[in-house]
Amino acid sequence: MDYEIRLDQFQGPLDLLLFLIRKNKIDIYDIPIAHIAGQYWEYMEIIQALDLDKAGEYLVLAATLLHLKSRMLLPVPKDEEQGGEEEDPRAELVRHLLEHQVLKNVVSVLESRSLLERDVFKRGFHDEGEKTFPEGQLAEMGVFDLIEALAKVITESRGTKQLEIDLEKISLADRINEIMEILAENKTVGFYDLFGDTPITKKQIVYTFLSILELTRLRMIRVFQDLSSGVIQIFLVEAGKHQAEYGAA
Amino acid sequence: MENLKAIVEALIFASETPLTLEKLTAVLEEVEKKTIRACLEELVAEYDGETKGFYLAEVAGGYHFRTRNEWSGWVQRLKKGKPATLSAVMLEALAITAYRQPVLKAEIDSIRGVDSGGTIRKLLEKKLIRIVGRKDVPGHPILYGTTQRFLDVFNLKDLSELPTLRELKELQE
Lengths: 249, 173
Prior knowledge:
The complex is a heterodimer. By secondary structure, chain A is of the alpha+beta class. Chain A has 10 helices and 4 strands, in the order ααααααβααβαββα. Chain A has 2 domains: 101 residues, no CATH class; 111 residues, Arc Repressor Mutant, subunit A (Orthogonal Bundle). Helices cover 54% and strands 7% of the residues of chain A. The longest helix of chain A is centred in the N-terminal third of the chain and has 22 residues. The N terminus and C terminus of chain A are likely disordered. Chain B is of the alpha+beta class. Chain B has 9 helices and 6 strands. Chain B has a 3-stranded antiparallel sheet with strand order 1-3-2. In chain B, strand 2 and strand 3 form a beta hairpin. The chains are: A alpha+beta, B alpha+beta. The interface between A and B is large, with 37 and 46 residues.
């Protein structure tokens, strides 16, 4: 556990390198590559032992350091030397490190701001107890919210293994009509209710989800999510009326 | 107009999202913009006090009532939830997007030194960044930028409120 925390201290390879530079009190413009590469490698080995996935991220920079080390060791060929202005092989790395350091500052600037829902709050709290859906407490959903909800349906349906042999013909139009019938009766229905409690086939999930997308596109339904409970509710848009009601949206 | 300040106050109070000066001028069409602006300034000053529960914040190009920092612990108790936080990784990717927008994933990856695919997706889901277009180079890679919600969440009036990169560099030296 101790080590995990040490690992999380670094957000990535550049972070580790900056840490080593600071620790050794090195001038960033004149990095003793051989020395730093050695230390970096030691850390690499610890990281590798702990989390192989993460170690992969650190490997590229380790290779870069070793490459730089070898270039620093090689003598500069005479004819190139006469060219005079040959760039320090470390220059690109230094640019990268400086950029990364600025990034660290930007992050701390962002962190220190008064964050909404952490330091400051706006109006709009309502008690969990309520399960009604008055307009004001609902937020219109984006595609990502819907996809998230779909992922939930799929994971939950995975528990029931079944063999699909029946060649039940279900078309998108059928499913749309079914949903519209439910809505015509109740005006509103819960997102997860449409996927039912009975075991549901993949096909049914796909068609139901497609129907919801299609109906939304046609502006026949509206999908809202309760902000505090996360319950997704589908509302019927009544013909002609929605212009006035949701005109602003 | 009589009671103009009270009316502006009411409009802001009733608004769920930050109310812009443009929107206020549209609603109060009889009143000159600069009169409204003066009212807003007065209101901001009036609500600014350590003994108050909330203040009038200038965020995301508009005006909005927000609770004061000092009382955050109590409001969190009311909400019972854990405070909204962003991971350091997400903050990094967000910071790069804020300063370099429109920005490519490749640029974010390069500055951070690691792959940011998952992080970008999470930021998109949280609606803190958005796709602003595609770069006109082979492959037409996606360009990302920050959203209004980003300003909202970080309590920023607009992007210019963030310190410039030069200021940050000077800070460092």
